[in-house]
Amino acid sequence: MILDAHVHLWEKQSGQVNGKPVLSIGNGKSNFGGEVRQMMPPYMTDGKNTAERLLANMDYAGVSGAVITQEQIDGNQDEYLLSCKRAFPRRFKICSLYEENKPFRTAGFDGIKLCAARFSSKDMTLHEPVFRQAAKEGKFISVDLMDGDRQTASLQEMITQFPDLRIAIGHFGMVTRPGWTEQIKLARYPNVFIESGGITWLFHREFYPYPSAVRAIREAAELCGMEKLMWGSDYPRTMVEITYKMSFDFLLKTTELSEKEKQEFLFENARAFYRFDAVQPCAPIGHMLD
Which of 86, 96, 110, 152 has the fewest Cβ atoms within 10 Å of its own Cβ atom? Predict the structure, then answer.
């Protein structure tokens, strides 16, 4: 069984980057702050990145459940994600979006997403109320940090202040950037895990089967233990060059990880951290190349 710890969904993209709008313009492309970017696979012609399309990919690839995170460049998707959770409660865990100087929501959500690298106030202790509320309600925090160690010290303060609060650090600590291991080391705390959403983006110039990404996973495991690491796809952005199945298939085929380590990374760690209690195996689906 496989669980995906980092996925995005939206019915309508309406976000911002550096104060400029991010809007779908069709065929998987977006106006990204004045630049045209391929933000989704080109077959998403209507600009809708829906739960049904994700589930079709998950069912085919054999992924039982997914954590729907958020990003400011997509716009706040709280209402759409609540509808997705109502429709597919066993398949999804969902995050509300924390935005600076705005009220944030917890009711109906499993966790809260902090796009910390995009905050104007980079010091994580200045955002203490969201950590406090998440800890009080038993939610998890999903956080994407700036490159390297620029926010690790202030996040460490929140980790120690709320030792029972589950915190998942995304993008595998921005693994291709200098100082990435400082983010990984935070997973030495019992309540902190690392998820690999975007790792195929960060190693995209190397491309499949991403041998450097596998080596980075091994290095991270030596720093904090394989039991603290979780797989994530960063769907749909990473799907502009690879298929959904390719985003984890390179891990199934590598000889650098044991079968036990693969099972931990792809399923067991995420099942425990995100509390996927009712998830079920996917039935295998044959295809025309079999």
Answer: 86
Report the alpha-carbon distance of residue 120 to residue 205 in Å, rounded: 30
Residue 50 CB neighbours (<10 A): 15
pLDDT per residue over 268-288, tens digit each?
999 999 999 989 999 888 888
**pTM flag (> 0.70):** yes
CB distance 84 to 128 below 8 Å:
no
Alpha-carbon distances, residue 176 vs 121, 144, 227 (angstroms): 24, 14, 22
CA nearest 241: which of 104, 63, 12, 41? 41
Over residues 71-106, the pLDDT tens digits come to 999 999 999 999 999 999 999 999 999 999 999 999
Other beta carbons within 10 angstroms of residue 144's beta carbon come to: 24
Between CA 101 and CA 219 the distance in angstroms is: 38
